[in-house]
Amino acid sequence: MNEPGPHPVGNNSQPAFDWSAILARHERWLRTAVFARLQEIDGVDEVMQAVAVAAIRQQAPLLDLNKAAPWLYRLAVWQTLQYRRRAGRQRKLAGNYARLKLCDESIKNVSDPLTWLLRDERQRLTRQALERLSRQDAEILLLKYTEDWTYHDLATHLGISDSAVEARLHRARCRLRGELAKLNVMGE
């Protein structure tokens, strides 16, 4: 009987898993983590492709399927660093290039121009504050609030303890509040 989901598919000395299923299960949160470290949407696909290739090649093999999430997270961090190095070299050769901004879909939902302007300004300042944070702080905040994960979910996927997640989130929130205060962003 074939059960859905990841399972060994080979007879080599190390297990061969169904990588398409494993990567599909972890793709969304890995993309968020990669985006938090890159701060550019264009490189996420390239890094995720490199993560998939590295996972299949298994130069540092995964022996326990229960540890797939932290193992993939480390692969994603490594591939993100490699991408940033390549991108830095390309920028140095090609010069500075413009960053693409995400379209703000909220414009359609606001009838009052003043409300729209205030919301747009607040979002811009919040993005600036996030960019000023360390990559680790931005990453854990984005994973927590875009994926709506519990502390335990974060700990499991990042391969750290629950108390480490709690401490990192506390410090990241404090730093974000400090950056928002520097930009004179007040509560709603």
Description:
The chain is mainly α and 188 residues long. It is 66% helix and 0% strand. The protein is built from 7 helices and no strands. The chain has helices at residues 19-38, 42-57, 68-94, 113-132, 135-147, 151-158, 162-182. Helix 1 crosses helix 5 (135-147). It is globular. The N and C termini lie far apart (55 Å). Residues 1-12 and 96-107 have low confidence and may be disordered.
Query: What is the tally of helical segments?
Result: 7
The helicity comes to 55-70%
Largest sheet: none
Radius of gyration: 19 Å
- Amino- and carboxy-terminal Cα gap: 55 Å
N to C succession of SSEs = HHHHHHH
The count of DSSP E runs of length 2 or more, i.e. the number of strands, is 0
Q: Mean of residue pLDDT?
A: 80
The best one-word shape is globular
Please state roughly what percent of the residues sit in beta strands, choosing from under 5%, 5-15%, 15-25%, 25-35%, 35-45% or over 45%. under 5%
Instruction: Outline the low-pLDDT stretches.
Output: 1-12, 96-107
The structural class is mainly alpha
